Amino acid sequence: SMLLMAGLSVSALWLATPAFAHHPFGGTTPASFMEGILSGLGHPVIGIDHLLFTIATGLLAARVTKGFVIPIAFVLASVLGTGIHLQSWDLPVPEIIVSLSVALFGLLLALRRCPAVPLLAGMAAFAGVFHGYAYGEAIVGAEMSPLVGYLLGFTGIQLAIALGSYTLARQLVAPDAQNSALPQLNLRFSGFAILGAGSAFLSSLLLG
Length: 208
Prior knowledge:
8 helices, about 75% helix, mainly alpha
């Protein structure tokens, strides 16, 4: 388990490169239900900032009682964010907010004690709106069928990633064991790595 967490952490830093591919079809709008599903499945995975944030919500959820509401709040809010984009409503500096959210959740994961679950869920939902807004770019102008497929795809893959991370982390630390040293250190180490990756994403946006 320690090795797995270390691998995640090293991967997070290694993937912290200035440019990220965010569109599974190279920017082409999906034209069918199946293309919509595939695009939806791919977007949160090949967008490394989105992937790391989704993982972070699952790892944080494992550290607190009833933490499963954190990734659920994020995923539901991301659907709302996509809807906002499709309505042509503008959100300010979405890429910067997404990068900040990765760094922030890495920091929260690195803390010895986590904030209260309602606060974490609220922050996850706020971030989810901006992540979903970014997802919406790939589906603007699509017909209803690929749009539905896209929403199903990215909702399903995000839930799978977050709940997979949650399940893995639960094997390392009991949700009530706030002071159990070694398991907490494993998750906190991953938090520092995600914080570093988020900081790299942010720097690439601000300095690029």
